[in-house]
Amino acid sequence: MDRMIYNAMAGAKAAMQRQDVLSHNLANVSTTGFRAEMASFRAVPVRGDGASTRVYALETTLGHDDKAGPWNRTDRKLDVALVGKSWLAVQGLDGTEAYTRAGHLDINAEGLLVTPNGLPVLGDGGPVTVPPNTTVQIGGDGTISAQGATGRPTTVGRLKLVTPEAKLQRGEDGLFRAADGADLPADANARLESGVLEGSNVSAVETMVGMIAAARQFEQQMELLSLSQTQGQVGAKLLSPT
User: How far, rounded to the nearest angstrom, does the alpha carbon of residue 39 sit from its chain's CA centroid?
Assistant: First the structure.
């Protein structure tokens, strides 16, 4: 009985955690450059006297799915999609360097090149500033050119593109950073495609199926808990003096 209760409780908790991960992924199925979160579980015995049969299921975070999302052509000059395993460097709200695949860029009132959330996009020398009243184009190597109403295009900077050797880690702000927190070096060979946006790599169908399976698993665990309680009450009555 003791084993059934703890196994069912651990299974129900694991199903709830999996449901949280899947629902978060599904909510971002249309988010530009989103990487699906992955998670798994492992069994951990509870140590202590009289608890040898008790086992908890603890979440083991696998990080994110590195698979590239689909490309959608927009023909907008400030939309970029990173090629291969490269990432775009931005400045997080905490001032640290972070990385994203969301290439829907814009220019704010101060002339800074920013993400949709207003985060400055970093170049080789820091945040990229664009001259006012100019048309901006971004080359395949990240070079940024600005052209006024009259005159030749002028190079104003180059996007910092990185290609990490190890898998990045997602932060609480949704941006990615190196595991040791260090800034990654710019990759001169990294490339991007202008006028294109990379979509989320979340499969809505697979995620929905996973949510249904997790919900059914949770229901089964709750039924086991109810069954163990019923059997415990029956056993208590049989053992009670008449």
Answer: 12
DSSP run (H or E) holding 60: strand 55-64
Q: Which residue has the tokens 């945040």?
A: 127
CA separation, residue 59 to residues 15, 42, 218, 223 (Å) = 10, 7, 16, 22
pTM for this model (two decimals): 0.79
Of 74, 50, 57, nearest in space to 10 by CA: 57
Q: Which of 63, 139, 43, 125 is nearest to 89 (CA)?
A: 125
In tens, the pLDDT along 76-89 reads 999 999 999 999 99
Helix (H) / strand (E) element for 239: namely helix 204-239
Q: Which two tokens stand for residue 29?
A: 């199925």
Range of weakest confidence among 159-163, 167-171, 172-176, 219-223? 219-223
Could you tell me the two tokens for 40? 């798994």
* pLDDT tens sequence across 27-43: 999 999 999 988 777 66
Do the Cβ atoms of 159 and 121 come closer than 8 Å? yes
How many C-beta atoms surround the C-beta of residue 196 within 10 A?
A: 18
**d(Cα 45, Cα 178) in Å, to the nearest integer?**
32
Give Cα separations from 184 to 83, 89, 172 (angstroms). Answer: 17, 9, 19
Nearest to 25 by CA among 217, 207, 213: 207
